[in-house]
Amino acid sequence: MSKHPIFAMAFAKVYPMYVQKVERKNQSKNDVDRIICWLTGYDQAGLEAQIEKQVDFATFFGEAPSMHPNCHLIKGVVCGVRVEEVEDPLMQKIRWLDKLIDELAKGKKMEKILRE
């Protein structure tokens, strides 16, 4: 089974697209960073270091300090796929992040996005 091309894509290439998506909806880059740090366990310096190093998605999630214990509560559809049914663990993490960014762009309250 071949690996999906996004696994080798630089996280730093997609990150600005996440920011642009939410800024178009009057949300902030700080909120994007907060979501990413919540999900992955990176602190702000760690997130910025990964972006600076131009790591791919596989490395970004592979080096993540710890996925949030409530990430299993992320449910819904992204690109026509239910995130809770994604079988590949790396693809599921990417879809979780996509889902959280979508929720932010749609104006969902941060407490609900972070499953608090």
TrEMBL record:
InterPro entries: SP1917_dom_sf (IPR023204), UCP033199 (IPR014580). It comes from the Bacteria. This is DUF2200 domain-containing protein.
